[in-house]
Automatic annotation (TrEMBL), chains A, B:
Native source species: Bifidobacterium adolescentis
A GO term, aspect molecular function: antiporter activity
Transmembrane helix keyword on record: yes
Subcellular compartments: Membrane
A Pfam family per the record: Na_H_Exchanger
Protein name as annotated: Sodium:proton antiporter
Length: 417, 417
């Protein structure tokens, strides 16, 4: 009798909580869509990238200012799916031949974009009194690009299939690969004081296996599946098959230790390599725009917490500026080395500035592993948000300077109005 | 120091759990879409309603058989959103003028469809040895129709805007209103032994307020908002505005004590009353089909648990048959009383058979309030699943018998191939 009563009480509490959670989620989602509709209007009038408005909406309603909305489990799920859909659409819009052509350039850009933040921001952290390992960790945190924000800006400007666009996307994939390796090196270094070569070998093996599998999917599996979906003529069959491929590859890339975004990006490329690229884009875009993508960008703002400690202001200011400059200079130099002109290299550098989930996860691990104290942990999260807020603005500005591309982007925007 | 370490450990555990949850969710969603694509093919070949295949997929992979998938919080969220989107699309496809014309018929059908299950299934429960209040509670559980399943079948057959279709949808709304009142009467009866008239008055007042607000939204607010969205020409603006209206009304109906489905249905009607009904349908349908609706139907199967107790078999068999018959006869008689012909009345009765969330919630409350023992609670959930599995089959069969409508449905299906 006692047990049954206890079970009842647990059931009761869980259901009440679930019901309240659902109501809160629905009204939060509704509010996010309303506010981002308004912010989108303002940004288009002011010729700002829309993502900036969405992040600011998150900061406004989040714990830093009004404190009326918080990042719940459900919003967090939608935000993660927003990244996946955004990267999938990035892949669909990406030109596979162009990506292949600029893959070497992408690797150079990514490497330079890792070396600069690790060296400069790690070095400056030493000057701020951090010990070598925590300083290196801070460098690694700021080496991880989250390109999804640039994807949104590039889509807005219609530049996903420009040579600068594919270089940014390719470099972001390479950046993720390097980031995972660096992070695992740092983790074993922190825990054991030495580098675990066997463990690293396993990580590399898993990554290689993923890329081989991804190539097979892009070239053979996905086009066959999409053709099958077209033949079967099920209602929404094309859209469902595209989502199946997207989720399967996102899951596989996560299994290989990479981020979901990488798998989703290759899924997008795979679908764009079939006869149904346009259909997939037309069906999946509203799925992202109506539900998931706004939650992702507002979520960045929601996760930003204010910093009370005025002593930190110098640290924050310097690290934010360096966070932007190290990527612009590093990746820009990489772009020049790969043969891009000055304006294009600058645009590529700006496109690699955003930091997001990957940097947050790395900082989180540093916090869990006792490498970062809690005061520096929240400060670093604040810096990541600031850098990410500057990034789309910078990308939009640099796009205008690129001969041909800037005019094309302006032309596209003009044609839409 | 101790506190910080404790905080770290909590963070760590929560993040690890969140990461694992996300991976499980992604592969579950992917598996659901793959399996329902296959089940959809089989059902179309066998001329069965696709929802039956989807529910069977859930039973197959769920705890009753293979036990490889479970209803997680995330899947449950997607399932709830699936109901909302399905009912929204039901509203978009519904003909407002026709619905108005048949609103009196709908109320008669709903009332008859409540009286029969409460009287017959409550009475039979008395024969099975239940005391009066638990017996009445079982009757109330089986009086609540969940029409979303019929909406899927009616959409498949292109019959949402037939006079039988709007009568089913209207009756389902009236059924929800009656259900909420009955449930609160039962709850106060169980807790205090008498009926709380003031509380009932408040519930009625909230419902009236909701319907007044819904009418204002349908006639003025929604068409104005949709026109505004059309003028603003934001990317995906029409789809986003439709989702905003849908979520806001679902939230409001929940606030008024009604189910989310009722609000979503009126939101659909509101959008269909604007100039952008077709756009909304075209954008929102893939959102539902690719992600949420399959999760809802598979989720019904996932929540079905087998019953070990062989003594229960007679109870299950009788109650399942009665669960189907009481609605078919009750609502069918209601249809006849409202002037429908025999075949149409039978189709309306079949359309009102499905039980879902509302019945599950009522059973849950009965369990929490100690009215139902745990052995009867899980048995009743099993019966609800069986009834719901029979319902779409029955509806599809009865549709064929309706003169004109059946031929039209066959014609639509033929034209699609």
């Amino acid at each position: 009798m006692y047990t049954e009563r206890a079970v009842r009480r647990t059931y009761d509490a869980r259901n009440e909580r679930a019901a309240r959670t659902m109501a809160t989620f629905i009204i939060s989602l509704c509010a996010i869509l309303m506010l981002t509709t308004v912010s989108g209007l303002i940004c288009r009038k002011a010729q700002l990238p829309e993502v900036i408005g969405q992040i600011l909406v998150g900061i406004l309603v989040g714990p830093s200012l009004l404190n009326v909305m918080h990042m719940s489990d459900s919003l967090s799920l939608f935000s993660d799916l927003g990244i996946i859909i955004l990267m999938f659409l990035g892949g669909v819009g990406c030109d596979l031949q162009l990506l292949k052509k600029y893959s070497k350039a992408a690797v150079i850009i990514a490497c330079m974009g890792v070396v600069f933040p690790v060296a400069v921001m790690g070095g400056v952290s030493l000057l701020f009194g951090f010990k070598p390992i925590p300083a290196a960790f801070i460098g690694v945190v700021f080496s991880a690009t989250s390109v999804s924000i640039s994807v949104a800006v590039l889509r807005e400007a219609g530049l996903l299939d420009s040579k600068e666009g594919v270089s940014i996307l390719g470099a972001a994939v390479a950046d993720d690969v390097i980031g995972v390796i660096l992070l695992s090196v740092m983790c074993t270094l922190v825990n054991t004081g030495s580098v675990d070569v066997a463990g690293l070998g396993l990580i590399l093996l898993k990554q290689v296996l993923f890329f081989v599998a991804a190539a097979v999917v892009v070239v053979w599996v996905a086009p066959a599946l999409m053709t099958l979906a077209g033949v079967l003529k099920a209602p929404s069959g094309i859209a469902v098959m595209a989502v199946i491929i997207c989720l399967a590859m996102a899951w596989a890339s996560n299994l290989a230790g990479l981020s979901y975004a990488v798998g989703a990006f290759f899924a997008g490329i795979a679908v764009s390599n079939s006869d149904y690229a346009e259909d997939a884009d037309r069906y999946i875009e509203p799925v992202g725009d109506t539900l998931f993508v706004p939650v992702f960008f507002v979520g960045i703002g929601l996760q930003t917490t204010g910093v009370d400690d005025t002593k930190m202001i110098v640290f924050i200011a310097i690290m934010t500026v360096l966070g932007v400059i190290t990527k612009v200079v590093g990746c820009g130099l990489g772009g020049r080395m790969a043969g891009f002109g000055g304006a294009s290299a600058l645009m590529i550098g700006a496109g690699m500035v955003p930091r997001g989930e990957m940097a947050l996860i790395t900082a989180q691990i540093g916090f869990n592993e006792h490498v970062l104290g809690s005061e520096y942990y929240s400060t670093i999260i604040f810096i990541i948000s600031l850098v990410t807020l500057v990034a789309p603005l910078l990308l939009k500005l640099t796009i205008r300077k690129v001969p041909g591309v800037g005019a094309a982007a302006a032309g596209t925007a003009g044609a839409e109005q």
